Amino acid sequence: MTVFELALRSMRQNVKHYYLYFFALIFSMSLFFVFASLLHDQQVQSMLESSDKFLIAFQSAAILLIGIIVIFTISSNQIFLRRRSREIGLYQLIGLSKGWVARYLIIENVLLGLGALIAGIICGALVSRLFVLILMKLLRLDGMPAIDFSLLAAFDTLKVFVLVVVTTSLQMIFMIYRSTLLQLFQADQQPDLSSQPPTVLASILTTIYAVLGIVLLGYGYELSGRMVDEQLILNAFLVLLSTITGTYILFRVTIKWWFSWIRKRKNGHLGLYNSLSLAPLMHRMKGNANSLTLITVLSALTITLVTMAYSVYYSTENTVRMEIPYDFSFENRQQDAQSFVTELEREGINFSYLPIEAVRTKGVILNPLDESSHIEERNLLWLPAEQLQRADKKLSVPSHGEAVEYSVSAQTAFDDSDFSKRYPTKIELISKGQTVSYPLQELIVENLVNSDISGNQILVSEKTLREIENSVSNNAGYERVQIDTYHIPDKGELALASSLYQKYNSDEYFTTDFYSRYRQTLEISGLLIFIAAFLGLAFLASTGSILYFKQMTEAEQEKQSFKTLRQLGFEEKMIMKGIVRKQMVVFLLPLFIGVLHSIFAVKAASIIIISDITVPTIISIGAYASIYFLFALSTLGYYRKIVKHAML
Hints:
The protein is an alpha+beta fold. The chain is built from 21 helices and eight strands.
């Protein structure tokens, strides 16, 4: 029998162990093929205004996806090599050289990969048009995607396959030539707890480490709530360091210490269910700390990535409307404004019109936290509240002599988001050689007029505005401003009105209307959520599969224990109850901690999202957890099969 024939026979015999690994490889290759197909899809690119950003976004995502696939295959291959270590040792024991064994495993690896590559390309080709349609729906683009096969995408996927095969083959060669026969025969053995009781000093140190893990997590969570200040980069680094280190200590020491405390309280009498759940976890928690920490961190990263991307997409219209409250506006361009009205009327587009008479001056907004900024003059746009109320804006008219600042960019412009430290404050103007102060009561995160009209937007009463105008009209920087604003009630007519408005944009006068900014933001946010969902699926498939493979290996190691319990008369249901308890810890604990990490991460990053992020967070966590539970159910199904056939 040749090496090639032996590899084929081995694959047929081990198909029950390879099926999920094979499925995960197919899934990874399919995802990459879809990514590559979108990258080379001219139809989608031609529909997008930001095609350059589209290419950059998908190229960057493709690199991340390649990294995920390589890490996943290395981790999975390591688990399967450990499971087959005894088989590899037997080949060497009967006199076969390490070179022969390496060739045998590499051939098997290439055959398995080729199958996954072909199946992945076929599956990717079948569903790629569906994902193009999903992307077009996310971007609100009309049309039906054409059905074709991208040779360039298939070639890119082939290059990824070669990278995966070369990497895993080198991993196999390294493992075979580095391991001794004794190590190969002992690699898949279940680790045991030390028979020697720990010393008093060791117990004290373990307790300190166990508490340290919780303290580090608490510190990371607490710091994440106040990390946005002048030391943002340092704070972000400390949050990541303390959270990841705390998670690792939690899995390596804290959980085992807690289980040991439970066992000590029970005087060692754990019972059947705890023996099937707590005892195996205590044996393996130290060895599984690396993988559980990785799974937890990746889960947190995935949920955070998807949540933030979905939050941006979910709040696109509201965010743009807060930045550009009027569909169209002109500043001191009465002739262009009249021409625009004429064109709207000629096209039969219904609209509402509101002129606003404002004043722009130079002035200083005092900052109680930084006296050095008091000398910095700014353009101040003084807006009358009574005129703005005519546009059905729900505004309160400030008291005489007082002002309120409006700025949609305030959350990202300041080092902190606690505006109570900066407000109330004062605005200082120079009037006839003297400084005049106006109380500035608060700052509201939205714009009163479109963002392309320069100046800090200050709301005052009309009476206050007239006083300011009279006192500073002779100063440098003073300017009367007429803002002509338009609102289109029918959203279906916005696209046509926007095309008419573009005629009045030039190098001298460049303004942004609501529809154009909305379309631009929608494209960017739609690409973000699409890419985040794809990468999230890849992360989820990788972490879930690795956890499943490890539990599958442990199930094989515990097979003799299940057989003994069955011989003693324990029923399958009784044994499965203990196994369910164990799997709840193995699967739910990383998920729970990962979700907790992501909640604090999203809360810290929510400063860039103006709208409420509660709904996107709940939906993202729910979707991730639902798919994650499928791996837990698959693991329980595998355990049930092992327990059921333990007597055979």
